[in-house]
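REVIEWER CHECKLIST
Item 1: Sequence provided? yes
Item 2: Single chain? yes
Item 3: Sequence as submitted:
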Amino acid sequence: MPHLLDESFSLRREIGIRERVKLIVTADVFNITNSVCFAAPGTNIDSANFGQVITTTNLPRKIQLNARITF
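Item 4: Structure as written out by the authors:
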């Protein structure tokens, strides 16, 4: 379903420090547009949340940064 897709983005940079030493920096962003996909409304008639939409089906935006030195 197209409305459940999350856009993700990754950026990587390799920086040479010396001849055999490299610094690798990576940034990953999940759900970059921070889109919200709402879940179905509550269907339990005995619940106080009956008919209300109180949850989502996807996760909020997450950003992950990491760096690595290889030699």
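Item 5: Key structural point noted by reviewer: The mean pLDDT is 89.
Item 6: Recommendation: ____
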